Amino acid sequence: MSAPTASASAVADLPVLAEVVRSGFVEGHHRGSLVILAADGGVDFALGTPERSVFPRSSNKPMQATAVLRTGLDLDGAFLALAAASHSAETFHLDAVRKILASADLDESALQTPPSLSLDEEEAEAWIRAGGQRERILMDCSGKHAAMLAACVRNGWDTASYLAEDHPVQVEARAALEELSGESVAAVGVDGCGAPLMAISLIGLARAFRAHVLADPGTPQRRVADAMRAHPEYVAGTRRIDTWLMRAVPGAMAKMGAESVQAVALPDGRALAFKIDDGAKRALGPVLAAALRRMGVTTEDDTLSRIAASPLLGGGLPVGEVRAAF
């Protein structure tokens, strides 16, 4: 048997954030890193290695939305929330994407998102039943791409190359991320939507979210935070965790990312960020709910329980769950 690689050893050293329990038997684990910031921005609680760089994936979108405002693009309300969204391609999402594009005299053909179906299984099934197929506008990042394209038109920048790392809109996105996180970008990759993807630490990610909610009213980052919190259904969708959380916790700003990344900032400056190392979506809700409860967050309804629910089925019936381990 070959010796484990350094990266495999590092993963094995990460703490278990969630465990998989079937019929009372623990059959698996999800490891990762997590950080909770106090109201003053200091680290209040940490698990794993939150100081190490990760790709935050779509949790970077609020910073990218801040960047398009800094280029001079005038977006507000639901349209600005959509610029920071991983939407579910519900009808109201698609209508808003088309309106952002139309404001710049563009249409869906300008989008360079990969053809896709909705992230929401119900929406995707309904689309297929109606005879639909994968389209670029259905991709969850099409709102962000529409905003980037509109920023290009507003500034006279090339729209064909808007996803290039050295394009002005992407240079501004990097600058916003570095400023708000207080870190230099550690690596640049390509996100699932084709846009440049920039790595920072989970601590930096939490600080960037905190910077949005604490910014002065009227600043680009505060406008993004306010739009997301006022229009949470545009940030995610009717049946999505980010929407539920922002509706139930006044002043919270939340954004998930692929590979099981999540960041949240509360209006008093507290914030959290985590990543499940294996990217398992089923662990995100239980870990998020446990982290929020550790921060003392409560809701008047059952939202935290809904977020935490990750049942395992046997014969079509619940026989277990994925549950937080801290």
Broad CATH class: Alpha Beta
Separation, N- and C-terminal Cα atoms: 33 Å
Provide the residue-averaged pLDDT: 96
Shape: globular
Overview of the structural elements:
The strands form 3 sheets. Strands 1, 2, 3, 8, 9, 10, 11 and 12 form an 8-stranded antiparallel β-sheet that branches. Mean pLDDT is about 95; it is low at about 1-5. With about 325 residues, this protein is an alpha+beta fold. It has helices at about 5-15, 60-70, 75-85, 90-105, 120-130, 140-155, 170-180, 200-215, 220-230, 230-235, 240-250, 285-295, 305-310; strands spanning about 15-20, 25-35, 45, 55, 190, 195-200, 200, 255, 260-265, 270-275, 310-315, 315-325.
In short:
This protein is an alpha+beta fold and about 325 residues long.
Helix and strand layout, with pairings?
Blueprint: H1 6-13, E1 16-22, E2 25-37, E3 43-47, E4 53-54, H2 61-70, H3 77-83, H4 91-103, H5 121-129, H6 142-155, H7 168-181, E5 188-190, E6 196-198, E7 200-201, H8 202-214, H9 220-230, H10 232-235, H11 241-248, E8 253-257, E9 261-265, E10 271-276, H12 284-294, H13 303-308, E11 311-314, E12 317-324
Antiparallel strand pairs: 1-2, 1-12, 2-3, 2-10, 4-7, 5-6, 8-9, 9-10, 11-12
Question: Which features does this protein show?
Answer:
326 residues; 12 strands; disordered N terminus; single chain; Beta-lactamase; alpha+beta; two-stranded antiparallel sheet
